[in-house]
Amino acid sequence: MNQKCMLCPHKCSIDRRINVGRCKAGEKVEIGGVSLHKFEEPCISGNYGSGTVFFSKCNLNCVFCQNYEISNLGNGKKIEVEELAKIFLKEQENNAENINLVSPTIYADKIIEAIKIAKEKGLNLPIIYNTNRI
């Protein structure tokens, strides 16, 4: 990670190894949930469902967010990049149509690392960047 975080359009320049930025995220990836989401838009969920990864924290902090507990309250758990790669591969094993990254912007650098690791281990699903990016 760059020492000055510039991942989202707010470009708060916080060193997330030491402090949290506007998004309230630190250095590690935080996820609020993983599911084989069969009720996403039909073009995304297909026949078997979308391998959805909900990321905790958010750069927008909308009070009306449908994932408020995850995005604003930060409910979730911290994981290593390697564990995120394993999650992607597990969703593929569960016949997911794709990997659906929900509110991923503030972890983009770590997600790229995880995708590279997962691809080396056989991940071949499309990646959906399901974002709130402003």
Describe this structure in words.
- There is one protein chain.
- Strands 3-1-2-4-5 form a five-stranded mixed beta sheet, with helices on one face.
- With 134 residues, the protein is α/β, with parallel strands linked by helices.
- The protein has a single domain, classed as Alpha-Beta Barrel (TIM Barrel).
- The longest helix has 13 residues, at 81-93.
- It has helices at 42-45, 68-71, 81-93, 108-120, and strands at 29-37, 50-55, 77-79, 99-102, 127-130.
- The radius of gyration is 14 Å and the shape is globular.
- Helix 3 (81-93) crosses helix 4.
- The chain contains four helices and five strands, in the order E-H-E-H-E-H-E-H-E.
Please summarize what this structure is.
This protein has 134 residues and is of the alpha/beta class. 25% of the residues lie in helices and 19% in strands.
The counted number of beta strands is 5
**Strand order across the biggest sheet?**
3-1-2-4-5
H/E element string?
A: EHEHEHEHE
Indicate the overall shape: globular
Low-confidence stretches: none
The H-level CATH homologous superfamily, spelled out, is Aldolase class I
The fraction of residues in strands falls at 15-25%
Radius of gyration over all CA atoms, rounded: 14 Å
Briefly, what CATH class?
A: Alpha Beta
Strand-pairing-aware structural class: alpha/beta
What descriptors fit this protein?
TIM Barrel; five-stranded mixed sheet; 5 strands; 19% strand; 134 residues; alpha/beta; 4 helices
